[in-house]
Amino acid sequence: MRPELRTGLALGMLLLTSIAQAQPAATATARPAATAAPSAKATGALPPGHPTTGGDPHAQMPVDQGDDEPQANPHADPHAQAGRGGSADGGPPPPPEDVEEPDLSLPAGTITVRIVDGDNKPLPKTEVTLGILENSVAKGENRKRITKTTDDRGFFRFDGLATGTGIAYRVTVVKDLATFALMPFQLPDKGGMRTELHVYPVTRDIEKAVIVMQSAVFFDLKDDRVQAEQAFMIYNFGRTAWVPDELVVPLPEAAMAVTSQQGMSDVGIDPIEKRGVRIRGTFGPGRHEIQFRWQLPYSGEDTLNIEVGMPPHMASARVIATAATSMRLEVAGFPASVTQPDGQGQRVLISEKQMAREEPPLKNVKITLAGIPQTGLPKTLMWAASGGTFLLLAFAITLGVQAGSRRKKTAELKSYRDVLLADIEELERARLAGDIGPKTYERARRELTSELARTFAGTGDKKAPAPATATA
User: Which residue has the higher pLDDT, 453 or 391?
Assistant: First the structure.
């Protein structure tokens, strides 16, 4: 997957546009990294079975305010990422923000901690853990914890702590299997750090929390595999934290190489072989993001059928696939896919659905990729047509003149060899960039080197030079 597509999915593609926004004119440029969350008008009511909130929760989702509006950092404090506003239309107001800020009135090496509930009332006699991470070239990484209990004001003060760029601190409270934590921070050289952490009631039952989800899945077809990148955006609009209880989202049984990048919180997934992924973590008030990747084997079929599961309370889902001109994307129960170019002019197919109250819950998504190109050179020209940067079309033309290569004059052969060597270098670059799989690489390199060797037959050259190889 090209870096700009991967980044677009990871940071922005979950902020889905409305159905109208997802169907631009054919000449419009797709902006998957800057789309907006669905509005209340576009999405309608909550998914079936969702608890009443006193207002449309979709109206609370973050909306793209344009280039001048600072965008929320998906790795920042989740308590500070609820939708802007909220109380004006009767919906729940955004949760109070956690605090971690320098305080010059404190002695150097001091951290004050105040633990409060969602109404900013102190939580006395609460166990607080201060995690300390020391990292240096000489000593490597060292972790330790200090656990204390707050007083009747929900307050505790840590003194005599070390400062410096190689030391980070994090305040954490564990309650009823939930983990509430500030983002890691460093102590300033002057003064200390004042912190405030909000701790909420906890439930394992999603029906007792105000949870709304969005989903996006992106497919990129390689020579011998389908690469998928999937993401869930999970919004908690209530004042109760949700900790999933064995929530497993199904993936195809053949799915393999399931990976995810661990963020700064306990939110994430655990792969379960031949079943899918288990969603875990503490989903307090605000916005949370889960991203993971997986692969499916592919052996050259012209049609692929893929079914992926969905977590509960799904408000909207989007399916995206890079595609050659002849390819089609069909998603059962979804509107017809639309075609948009990405930032590099590559063809992208998108199908999106916004759920309404009268519809049954979206438990799975059935996807068909049809019209996959088939060529005489298995997958190589198809890969080039689907957006690869390596010029395998030139390689195909090169192979087309094999029969006449032996009759070329010496000067023409040398020029021809230069073309072949350039093709081999480009092949190596494509391999290192991950644009082609190992089977395509081995097959193309074998053909190119064989053709290169044939150019030396009958020319008087005693030894062919070794093919050029790009270094990592």
Answer: 453
